Inverse folding.
């Protein structure tokens, strides 16, 4: 299975769904989107061994600890 | 999974709602959730002129897109923070989005306006980059909204942002910030003429999780900047988000319950700490600033001008030292 962002090829035997793949990779599913051919996949979506996937992080940082200061 | 509405093939699942959606109904769901938040917290009316602060990231571009869908009168505002190639790429994303929608985007540069970038300000003052960045953005967003005559300033803060801020404020028992952490910060006026001091600020994405704004942007073809700001590494807010996301993974709905439970049951208990502080004009820029503390030090300057003055003084010292070094040679 080929993963992008960052690009790498991983050998993962058996995961048949997005959820199983993320578990195998120890990725928190709430923190990512999984994309195949520019289409989003739900966590129960079946996967094929030759799939090329992007696992895109969604949590951004920010300058918020002092929100509201100065007013 | 099947779409909750039409039973077509679903592309987005939202565990806290125990629901999944096809692309069209997911977009409809997000738009309706934003409309609900605007109505519930009386954020804006159809007559208001909205200035949307955009960074080129998914949240700010998504909220701008949604507000246009809902029929609001919007203009974008991008502040170039001078963070190397990252700022260049984020500005390109913001401009490309505005061009694609045929809407107006106001662009200003921190360096052109004040003579320093966020990295330079941090190096000169020793201030943590994210802290200095936040100070600059709050100041410039408000200034732009007032100067350009907007009624409301919109930011793309989502549910994850708000719950992480709440978590941090609780960890430190920062009661003043707990009192002020509302989806709407009302307009404030200053002086006998009741001139506007702080424009109304609203956060229409409070019902939308960060994963959903990313999904929204992808489905809507919004080409946002995916890379993270290079200065955010180790940011406290980011660590809080990661911890809360682990809790959400184990128990969907945790973030929503914490934040909306706070707004419903707790927030008003800190109303006194919100502080109806007296506002005075800053001696540096004339913008309003809180009077408390300023009188004691004798410096009636706002936080932004104090930081800017420190940066300018440090830069002058360095240039002076460099100049002496040249003469000695």
């Amino acid at each position: 299975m080929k993963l992008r962002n960052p690009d790498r090829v991983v050998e993962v035997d058996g995961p048949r769904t997005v959820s199983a793949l993320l578990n195998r990779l120890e990725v928190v599913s709430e923190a990512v989107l999984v994309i195949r051919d520019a289409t989003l996949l739900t966590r129960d979506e079946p996967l094929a061994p030759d799939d090329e996937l992007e696992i895109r992080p969604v949590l951004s940082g920010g300058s918020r600890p002092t929100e509201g200061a100065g007013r | 999974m099947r779409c909750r509405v039409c039973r077509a093939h679903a592309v987005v699942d939202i565990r806290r709602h125990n629901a999944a959606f096809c692309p069209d109904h997911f977009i409809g769901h997000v738009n309706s959730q934003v409309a609900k938040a605007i109505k519930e917290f009386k954020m804006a009316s159809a007559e208001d002129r909205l200035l949307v602060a955009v960074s080129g990231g998914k949240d700010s571009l998504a909220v701008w897109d949604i507000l246009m869908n809902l029929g609001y009168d919007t203009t974008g505002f991008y502040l170039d923070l001078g963070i190397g190639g990252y700022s260049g790429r984020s500005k390109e994303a913001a401009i490309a989005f505005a061009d694609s929608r045929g809407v107006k985007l106001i662009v200003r540069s921190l360096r052109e306006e004040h003579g320093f970038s966020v990295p330079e300000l941090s190096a000169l003052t020793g201030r943590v980059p994210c802290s200095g960045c936040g100070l600059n953005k709050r100041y410039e967003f408000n200034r732009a909204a007032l100067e350009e005559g907007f009624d409301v300033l919109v930011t793309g803060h989502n549910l994850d942002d708000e719950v992480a801020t709440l978590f941090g404020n609780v960890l430190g028992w920062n009661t003043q910030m707990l009192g002020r952490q509302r989806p709407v910060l009302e307009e404030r006026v200053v002086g006998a003429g009741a001139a506007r001091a702080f424009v109304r600020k609203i956060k229409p994405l409070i019902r939308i999780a960060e994963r959903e704004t990313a999904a929204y942007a992808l489905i809507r073809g919004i080409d946002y900047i995916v890379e993270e700001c290079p200065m955010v590494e180790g940011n406290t807010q980011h660590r809080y988000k990661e911890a809360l996301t682990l809790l959400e993974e184990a128990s969907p709905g945790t973030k929503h319950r914490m934040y909306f439970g706070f707004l419903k049951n707790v927030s008003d208990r800190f109303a006194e700490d919100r502080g109806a502080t007296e506002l005075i004009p800053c001696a540096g820029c004339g913008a309003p600033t809180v009077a408390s503390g300023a009188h004691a030090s004798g410096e009636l300057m706002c936080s932004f001008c104090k930081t800017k003055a420190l940066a300018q003084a440090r830069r002058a010292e360095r240039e002076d030292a460099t100049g002496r070094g040249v003469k000695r040679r």
